[in-house]
Amino acid sequence: MRLDRADISAILELLREVSSRDIMPRFRHLSPAMIRQKTGRLDQVTEADEAAEAALAQGLRALFPGTDIIGEEQAAADPSCLALIEGDRPVFIIDPIDGTGNYAADLPLFGVMVALVHRNRTLAGFIHDPVGDDTAIGLVGEPAWIEQRDGDKALLQVAPPVPVGQMAGAISWRFLPEPYRTRIMNRLDRVAASWDYRCAAHQYRMLAGGHCEIQLFGRTLPWDHAAGVLIHRQAGGYAAKFDGAPWLPSDRAGGLILAPDQPSWVALHEALIGLT
């Protein structure tokens, strides 16, 4: 399945429509009753997440009959749907609001992510910013770009390689298992700077846009990473799991490191995870 320009325009319009109708009107207007915990206080869901996921799923089914849908909230209720990632039918993977903790805290740092996956391979990725109203886009075989509402486009390009001591970027350690958690945390002084925006959507946009060099994640759920890993790759970057294997949408463990190129990845892996 390959998306043409009409398909891309339809997806962008759907992302804007859902953002303007289901996400932005609720932003900074959530009551406590509209927010609840899923697995704990670091894992929240809001009424807006559920409304946006339902609307995106309905819209994508109408645009692309015969495709399957996996939403983050759907998977939380029924994890068996994740088997669709490796199935024979194309599947859209939806993160209706990435950065829900920020959204619930009235911080304007959240995004909507949609990825098209077929047989465990990501074919297209979209990361929409409802606040800025623009979308980062990646398609297999094409350079990644960011598209404004008026159709203006700018190519995305990862940062040039630099030594590990000059690398900076997002290092998310909240879900790192041991022994990686202790080892990486004790070695953060080997990079120039690190942060965690609690929002993979914007972290991927920064990375693909060349505004930082690196990202590291312990948990690799498909709705958090399928779109971003593809966009980063089409912007010239290199990504792999902690063991060096390529990350696949079906991978939910094994960690993930992203860097400007493979030599940078090897150097960063050695600095943060290696035995020396």
Task: Describe the SSE topology.
Elements: H1 5-23, E1 35-40, E2 43-46, H2 47-63, E3 68-71, H3 72-77, E4 91-98, H4 100-104, E5 111-118, E6 121-129, E7 134-139, E8 145-148, E9 153-155, E10 168-172, H5 180-185, E11 193-195, H6 200-208, E12 214-217, H7 222-234, E13 238-240, E14 256-259, H8 262-272
Describe this entry's structure for a reader:
With 276 residues, the protein is of the alpha+beta class. It folds into 2 domains: 5-155, Fructose-1,6-Bisphosphatase, subunit A, domain 1 (Fructose-1,6-Bisphosphatase, Chain A, domain 1, 2-Layer Sandwich); 164-272, D-Maltodextrin-Binding Protein, domain 2, CATH 3.40.190.80. The protein has helices spanning 5-23, 47-63, 72-77, 100-104, 180-185, 200-208, 222-234, 262-272, and strands at residues 35-40, 43-46, 68-71, 91-98, 111-118, 121-129, 134-139, 145-148, 153-155, 168-172, 193-195, 214-217, 238-240, 256-259. Strands 3-4-5-6-7-8-9 form a 7-stranded mixed β-sheet, sandwiched between helices. Strands 11-10-12-14-13 form a 5-stranded mixed β-sheet, sandwiched between helices. A two-stranded antiparallel sheet has the order 1-2. Strand 10 (168-172), helix 5 and strand 11 (193-195) form a beta-alpha-beta unit. Helix 1 packs antiparallel against helix 2 and helix 6 (200-208) packs parallel to helix 7 (222-234). The chain starts with a helix and ends with a helix.
